[in-house]
Amino acid sequence: MKFYLISDNIDTQMGMRLAGIEGIVTHTAEETQQALDEAMKMQDVGIVLMTEKAVKQIAEKVYDYKLTRKTPLIVEIPDRHATSKISDTISRYLSEAVGIKL
To answer: How far apart are CA 26 and CA 9, in angstroms?
Structure first.
């Protein structure tokens, strides 16, 4: 199993490529949704990494996949434009998915 990146900027993509992680840069919500749909079909991808901005573009689609699909795992990662703490993201996800407020 391998990682796959969906990023909104080239800097994050280049950094991940140095670590051996392939991916795509998207700029619009439509591009991001298409990239995620394609990544979810890839048999050899175990984890899809998405930058914070990319997740915000298609948040409902991301949460739908997280709740209905076991694999691949979708993980939101901060990038150079990160505006929130990752713990806030996890808390928000739990609140929306299960109704638990931390």
So the answer is: 7
